[in-house]
Each structure stands twice: as structure tokens, then as C-alpha cells.
Recover the amino acids of this structure.
């Protein structure tokens, strides 16, 4: 809460926001270049990167960059994303979630069960994408692995890329669905009502100091 | 478009037919490598270098006859020498001319993500079109015979072309032309299979009971075939795979996975869209702001 805007709560600092968008832009570039090499119907996307060879050259470097950028962001956020009992209850009531019946859901902390699940999906996917990506990075590393490992790497890379893309589609949609979320990540603040409605436990936590004053 | 090929039956990363008006009406081609006649002179290697204008770096002796020690972007064929002691205790020098097998069902072509970087002609030859190659090395991942090599200079993949340029104008491949013993012969696949059958009969009469033709069915047959003295043990010949096939992981990766994954991604986005239309966004209104303010005032 800022004194100039008593109706606002800061949700993301400028550093976190910048970090998030660096990861987000890297992800978009990786998804486009990755899909271009995954399915021939999307090979035309290589044009965005300067052609096939350039796509092949750039993709792994952007990947390493994204992993590094996400590592920073992930470390900042991991404590708030540890799953608790109430998150599992929240997840079990997914019907109420998608039908916007938040009054039936347990109180949510800084992140809800879905967000936490997404967080760990990203962590697992990125770790597996990094490892399998190194294995199939022909220019520098593939020669050090047996052909069986390279084949497994190629398959795993496609699989985890697919899981990650689907997860991020859900993540993006959640931002569009829950109004006020995009503003939280672009401007950094949410309204009191937003925090109270979607993340009540977090709302109480962050407003505690203010009440004591 | 000069020199356009009108006889392409398969093209990498392409779903619609390629120009294929011209067929191989006189039959598909095959090169037959008779290992039982090979003396290991390496004339074929020299002919390959000469015709294709390739010059590999001069290496050093690695303690065996293989020279160069492996295939490379500059060495599209290599003689592989094996000293085999047979059960009778005699030494057999098994020499195999290694290189692309020109599979009927090519794993390299299946794995390639770049449209038109790998093609198969109506006559059966599998050819790399390096101008379309992006250098990803997926062909290496897909090949059951470990043949393609990426050049360090231009990062393109290279392998034996079966002298597609010579064959196109009615010549035999350079290696075949140079072979002094007749261990290499070239013709239609049918003729070569027949010729091999005669050779095998002869070998059997000379005590090689297991002599046979190597034309593995797992890859749909190959357009480079071997006559082997020990067709029951192809692994003896510097690890020639016994039952080569496109690896199941490659098949999965390049098969159902591709359409299914794209469909699932599109479906995920579609479900989101329908949710927005059907159920609608989750908004915060004045009541929520009011409730939040009340709670703040309530608690001391």
C-alpha cells in the first residue's frame, strides 16, 4: 500500500516484473523457433529468425538465456509456491474455480494451487528441456552422447516443450480471465478488492502492518 | 527452374506430393557390394574423392587399415577392415565398404525438419540437398547406420549420393566404375538381387553355408546391398546392424507426436476461448473493494 494510493497493494516489484517479462519474451521466441523445427506445417516460422540455419543456431542460446533468467525469478518465488494442505483442497474444487465461484474455495495465500502447480511444471519442464537440449545440441555436445541418448533427448525435448507450451497457454489465459492480473505484472499493483477476493490470506498478511499503525 | 528433378517420391518435412511425373519405369537401382570379392584396395574411396571433389584432411595412423578412420563430410565411403578368427581357428579378413545404404524407408528423411533438405528419387536414391540443410543433425539421430556427418566448415550434413548426378545421366557410381575385382556392381535392384543369388549359390558351394544377401527388411530394403560370407552374423562386419530399423523413439518423435501435440496446444487455447465466452472473466467489482475496506477497518 502506498500513501499516495491507499487503495492499491504492491504485488510485484519492478525487478520482478522486468525479470518476468524477460522470461516471457524468451519463452515466446523459444516456442516459435521450437515449433518451427517441430512440425513442418510451422517451418515458415523460421523466417522470423532469419531462416532455418539461424533458427537452429539461435534457439539453444535463447534457451540457455531463458533458463538463467527463470532461475533468478524462480528463486525469488519458490518459497511462496510451496504447496500446502489448502492448495490441494483448492485444486480438488477446480469446478468452483473455473465457474468463478470463489466463495466456495479455501482462502488463498500469495499464490493459489493452480499457480503453484504451474510453477513446479515450469521448473520441471525447464530442467528437462535444458538437459535434453544439451544432448541434442549437435554443434557442441551431441557427439559426446550415444545415439540412444540423443534419440531419447530429441523425444524428451519435444515432449517437455509441448507440456510447457500448453502450460503457458493456460497461464496466459488465466491472466486474461482473472481481470487485474495483467496489470499486476505490468504496473505492479492490485486493488484492495482484488487481493481480498483472490488471495485473501495474502491480503491479510500484507495489510497487517498497516492496521497496527 | 533449371535441372529440376521431376522424380521425387519423398521429400523431408513435406506432406504434399513433390514433382514426380517421371518414374523409374525400368526399375529402381541398387549397388551390390560383394564383400567376398573385396580386396580392400580402396580404389572406390579414391574414385569417390575424385568424382565428388572431396579431399579429407590427412590424418595419422590409428593402428589399423581403416584410412580415414571414419566417415566424414569429406569421406563418403570408408573401407572397414575386421580380422575375424572363425571357429576353425582360421583368420578371415572381412572388409566392408561403409557408406549410405540408401534405405527404402530412410530414417534421416523421416527425422529431417527442413522441407526438401533430404529427398528420395523414384530410382530409390536418397539424396541430401545441402542448400536446404539447416545443420540440426536430426538426420544423424534418425539414421540406423550412423552415416550422415556434419561439416565443421559449413555445418551442413553430407553423405554418399550414390553418385545421383552420374546415375541421372546413365552412368554407374564412381566407386563401381573403379572397382578392379567386380566386388562392386550397379544396376536395377532386381538384377542385383539376381546377381547376388548367383554369387551366394557359388559361395555356398565353396563352404560358406551361411552366405547371404544383406537387404534388411526393417528399413524396407536398401538400395545398397551386401553379399556377406556370414549373413547370419552381420555384426562381424564392423558392427553392421543385424536388424536395422528406424528407432521407435524416432518414429514416435516424428510420427503421431507431431499432429497430436499441435492439436493439443490448439485445443488448450480453444478451451480457454470457450471458457471466456461461456463462463466469462473473473472480475473484481465495487462490492469486493467495499468488503476489503470494511475488513481493514474492522481489525484493529
Amino acid at each position: 500500500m502506498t500513501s499516495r494510493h491507499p487503495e492499491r497493494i504492491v504485488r510485484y516489484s519492478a525487478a520482478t516484473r522486468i525479470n518476468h517479462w524477460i522470461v516471457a519474451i524468451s519463452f515466446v521466441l523459444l516456442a516459435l523457433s521450437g515449433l518451427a523445427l517441430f512440425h513442418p506445417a510451422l517451418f515458415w516460422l523460421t523466417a522470423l529468425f532469419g531462416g532455418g540455419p539461424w533458427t537452429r543456431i539461435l534457439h539453444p542460446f535463447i534457451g540457455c538465456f531463458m533458463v538463467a533468467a527463470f532461475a533468478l525469478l524462480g528463486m525469488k518465488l519458490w518459497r511462496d509456491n510451496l504447496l500446502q494442505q489448502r492448495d490441494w483442497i483448492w485444486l480438488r474444487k477446480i469446478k468452483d474455480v473455473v465457474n468463478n465461484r470463489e466463495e466456495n474455495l479455501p482462502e488463498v495465500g500469495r499464490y493459489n494451487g493452480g499457480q503453484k502447480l504451474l510453477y513446479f511444471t515450469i521448473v520441471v519442464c525447464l530442467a528437462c528441456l535444458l538437459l535434453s537440449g544439451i544432448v541434442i545440441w549437435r554443434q557442441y555436445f551431441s557427439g559426446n552422447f550415444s545415439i540412444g541418448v540423443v534419440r531419447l533427448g530429441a523425444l524428451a525435448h519435444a515432449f517437455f516443450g509441448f507440456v510447457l507450451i500448453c502450460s503457458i497457454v493456460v497461464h496466459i489465459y488465466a491472466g486474461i480471465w482473472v481481470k487485474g492480473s495483467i496489470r499486476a505484472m505490468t504496473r505492479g499493483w492490485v486493488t484492495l478488492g482484488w487481493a481480498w477476493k483472490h488471495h485473501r490470506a495474502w491480503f491479510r498478511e500484507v495489510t497487517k502492518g498497516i492496521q497496527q499503525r | 527452374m533449371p535441372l529440376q528433378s521431376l522424380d521425387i517420391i519423398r521429400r523431408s518435412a513435406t506432406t504434399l506430393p513433390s514433382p514426380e511425373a517421371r518414374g523409374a519405369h525400368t526399375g529402381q537401382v541398387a549397388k551390390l557390394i560383394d564383400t567376398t570379392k573385396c580386396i580392400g584396395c580402396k580404389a572406390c574411396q579414391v574414385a569417390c574423392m575424385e568424382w565428388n571433389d572431396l579431399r579429407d584432411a590427412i590424418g595419422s595412423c590409428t593402428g589399423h587399415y581403416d584410412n580415414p578412420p571414419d566417415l566424414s563430410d569429406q569421406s563418403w565411403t570408408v573401407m572397414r577392415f575386421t580380422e575375424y578368427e572363425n571357429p576353425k581357428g582360421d583368420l578371415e579378413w572381412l572388409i566392408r565398404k561403409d557408406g549410405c545404404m540408401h534405405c527404402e524407408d530412410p530414417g534421416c528423411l523421416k527425422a529431417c525438419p527442413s522441407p526438401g533438405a533430404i529427398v528420395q528419387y523414384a530410382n530409390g536414391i536418397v539424396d541430401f540437398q545441402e542448400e536446404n540443410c539447416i545443420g540440426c543433425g536430426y538426420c544423424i539421430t534418425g539414421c540406423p547406420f550412423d552415416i550422415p556427418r556434419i561439416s565443421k566448415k559449413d555445418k551442413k550434413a553430407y553423405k554418399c549420393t550414390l553418385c545421383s548426378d552420374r546415375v541421372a545421366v546413365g552412368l554407374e557410381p564412381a566407386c563401381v566404375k573403379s572397382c578392379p575385382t567386380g566386388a562392386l556392381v550397379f544396376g536395377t535392384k532386381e538384377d542385383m538381387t539376381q546377381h547376388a543369388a548367383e554369387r551366394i549359390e557359388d559361395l555356398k558351394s565353396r563352404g560358406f553355408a551361411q552366405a547371404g544377401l544383406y537387404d534388411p527388411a526393417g528399413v524396407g530394403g536398401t538400395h545398397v546391398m551386401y553379399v556377406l560370407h556370414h549373413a547370419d552374423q552381420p555384426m562381424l562386419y564392423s558392427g553392421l546392424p543385424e536388424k536395422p530399423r528406424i528407432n521407435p523413439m524416432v518414429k514416435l518423435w516424428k510420427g503421431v507426436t507431431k499432429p497430436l501435440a499441435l492439436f493439443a496446444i490448439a485445443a488448450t487455447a480453444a478451451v480457454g476461448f470457450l471458457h471466456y465466452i461461456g463462463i466469462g472473466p473473473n472480475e473484481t467489482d465495487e462490492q469486493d473493494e467495499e468488503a476489503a475496506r470494511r475488513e481493514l477497518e474492522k481489525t484493529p
The first helix of chain A runs from residue 14 to 38. Chain A touches chain B through 56 residues (CB under 8 Å). Chain A has one domain: 8-212.
